[in-house]
Design brief:
By secondary structure, the protein is an alpha/beta fold. It contains 3 helices and 8 strands. The longest helix is centred in the first third of the chain and has 11 residues.
């Protein structure tokens, strides 16, 4: 059986704030929101291009529960770009982000691998939006 990365944990301050950001501003899909206890939930989100059978990498929103975890919220990679969001229509998704008030860190540029812009999520984690070359 081939192996795949199914999920990446993203440490957040608040489940509901994170869900609102990713669903309302980035157009992600809320895949699952299951209570596990009074304070813990199993919350998975995915970009809209995730396959209907759930295949493709998803984000597991993990609420920080102690000081060490809270210190990682928004800076899980020491200030480097953390996640890479591929799109089939760069300008559609870039314009939607701008319209939705997503913080753009670096404006779009052409690279050998496509058009890329850097944006920050609600906590400051850096993402690359990557699409086909500039049109």
């Amino acid at each position: 059986m081939p192996q795949t990365i199914a999920q990446l944990a993203l440490v957040v301050d608040d489940y509901d704030d994170a869900i609102r950001f990713y669903v309302d501003k980035l157009n992600f899909i809320l895949v699952e929101d299951t209570p596990l206890s009074d304070t813990k939930r199993w919350v998975r989100i995915a970009p809209p291009g995730t396959l209907p059978d759930g295949q493709g990498c998803q984000l597991l929103l993990a609420k920080a529960t102690d000081d060490e975890q809270r210190s990682r919220v928004g800076n899980q990679t020491g200030g480097r770009v953390f996640l890479f969001l591929n799109t089939d229509d760069f300008w559609r998704d870039f314009r939607l982000m701008v319209q939705n008030g997503v913080q753009i860190i670096r404006e779009p540029v052409a690279q050998p691998y496509g058009t890329v812009a850097v944006f920050a999520d609600l906590y400051g984690n850096l993402w690359d939006l990557i699409g086909p070359g500039i049109k």
